[in-house]
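Lay summary. Proteins are chains of building blocks that fold into shapes, and those shapes determine what they do. In this project we predict the shape from the chain. Here is one chain we studied, written as its sequence of building blocks.
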Amino acid sequence: MKDIKSIFNNAINNISVKRMALAVLISVILHTLIFSGFGWELPSFNSRHSVIEAQLMLLPVKLQEMKPNPVKPKIAKNTAKPVPVPSTVSAPEIIPESTLNQSPAVTTDNIESTEIVPLDESSIVVPQDDPVPRPFTYVVTEFDAKRGQDATPAGSAKITYQALPDNRYILRSELQAKGLLALFIKQRTLISEGSITENGLRPDKFQYIVEKDDQKTNTVLFDWVNKTALFQSKKELKVKVDALPEGTQDLLSFMYQSMFVPPLNQTKFYVANAKSIKEYDYEFAGEEIIESKIGKINTIHLHRANEDSDETVDLWLAADYLHLPVKIVQVGKKGVLEMHMTSIKSDASASPEANNTKQK
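And here is the predicted shape, written in a compact code that computers can read:
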């Protein structure tokens, strides 16, 4: 028991000695630092706020080369190669002020030749100024008249068409016999008057006049409101009224209706002569080139036959003159009558087609 107490006391004494030695060592170190002049200074906070300075830095970005997007032409493929884009961009060059007014020199060192692809002409649409020809406003057509199978000269004829103000028109045909026939055949004058509509000519009055013979003079009045035609004859001293079909023409106006309506678009007509209204049905007989005193003429040939008799009428309409009649052949009870155009005088400026031909 005594041995245990002795060991315990010795341990306590050893701990006390170690603590004493550690305190002495710390004291020696502190005194050494103080007397050697070493020390440090704590940061002073003179202001209430501190300032933190920071600088933003751009992160390095990897540039990607942009390639041009070639445009594909619609007509032909372009064989030109795109100019390569440089991977690096150099700093712009400063041009001296003395050279600003000088024109830069053009060089072709770095330009590659490009093949020129011809343009497909079939894809080009050329606009036309006026594809629809306008009717004449004034035209005079002269004819030589011939009779019989041997085409004996019988006289001359002249047809004058004139457009008037307020969409009115007047047509006048004068047939003058020559030679011995003048003793038997008097001058005949046909006059058609009316209005110009979107569908062409619409006659209001038609006159058939025989020179110095009032008994053979006839007049037709067209009443479009009541759809009737009034026939007046001085010889018979009576008035006749007929129904007036829509689109009825007279002996003169139906031949000039082709200026407004192409002849192949309208081949059936109701036509008023000096005594009644008849239906004329023409047939397309072909396209022909006929000889005339003004040269060769392209024509459209129309033929009409009468079912009730042997009477026939043939018309040749000039394709280059707005389908004006240039040849007429009529076969009837009195034989054969032919009329051949000898001249055309017109206001050619009124028609694009007529502009391509000289006034005769």
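What the prediction tells us: The longest strand covers residues 152-164.
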